[in-house]
Amino acid sequence: MLSILSLFHLSQVVNPAEKLWALITFLRSHAEEKIVVFFATCAAVDYFTRLLQGGLLSSNHAKLIHGLHRKMRQKRSSIFAKFRNLSKGVLLCTDVMARGIDVPNVNWVIQWDPPSSANFFVHRCGRTARCGAQGRAVLFLTPTELAYVDFLQINQNVTLVERTLTELVDAQTLTQFTTDSIRLKVQKICTNDRLLYEKGIKAFVSFVQFYRKHDCSLLFKIRDLDLGALANAYGLLRLPHMPELNGIPNFSFIAPDVDLSKLKYKEKSVAKQRELKRKALEENPPPKFKKSSPWSKTKEKKAKRASRRLKHRINEEPKAAAFVPGNHMPRKRQAVVGHGACDEEDDDDISEEYKKMRKHKGRKITTAELQEMEDSD
Questions:
Q1: Mapping DSSP to helix (H, G, I), strand (E, B) and coil, where does residue 162 land?
Q2: Distance (Å, rounded) from C-alpha 68 to C-alpha 77?
Q3: Where is the composition biased (Basic residues) (predicted)?
Q4: Is pTM beyond 0.85 here?
Q5: 338 in helix, strand or coil?
Q6: Contact 252, 226 (CB under 8 A)
Q7: Could you tell me if 260 and 346 lie in one domain?
Q8: Who is most buried in 27, 107, 212, 254, counting CB within 10 A?
């Protein structure tokens, strides 16, 4: 049961490059509380769970970090039960946890990514302030997304109160790390494990695709988002190759000086699995797809094809008209004039020839088939 009077809706404005730093600072400051953090995609949950468990938090705090999304079918129930029974800890999840699930004593709900729809904003917030208890929900927004606050007010009748990170965390934790120190630490973790490097790329790509297809595309515009700065927050070693990045400046992205070809997998089982997959691809390479040509060239080809068809039609029409039965003189008139009468067999032959030409013109039979039919006659 959600108690509206005891739930405080808060928003925090963060630059894209500061999002991970803000989250880690918040988690460190509220280490003794129970927190649910919502992400937009399964890949993001998987990636950031591994990062938080792999060195971004203290060892004792890292043990209380859990990740849950819809693709974890076997482990999902056990992870949920474990987090439910904790008095403190952090659960990173997708909207699979947004509704229909009761987790007691959740102190904070953090929406690191905006929800896919306004309805899910309310469902996410409903994970805290259960059964009359107090709770707080914080939505991270970048400066270009602030119009979403007014949209929620109109669409869901929810008023968000803006708070800075200084108001939400203690002063000592706030100055413990900087945005650059977090970025360098994440990049170092990814350099030591190729699997995390791959998962970071996948998480970034999945978020960009989610953002591009957002229900509120008028408010969440991909061209307004600083993707280079966001890639820094993800700690990427390189920008992925994707069409959404074409024509978008990424000058704010800071790429480390790392030889990506020398990255190794930390887990031996993963390294073995990747090696088997690589050998299988070498033995049975996938079919090479023809690269799509530019739109201008495709348009030019279509114009040339249409021109050839028009010329062919102009050349074929006089030939087809020569076989029209109405073009020859009727039998009775021919007999009167004295040119001789056509018998029924000649008339039928002309009709058959006309039908063949019509079929050939309509592409129902090929030129070879037409020639074969004429030879058989």
A1: strand
A2: 9
A3: 299-312
A4: no
A5: coil
A6: yes
A7: no
A8: 27
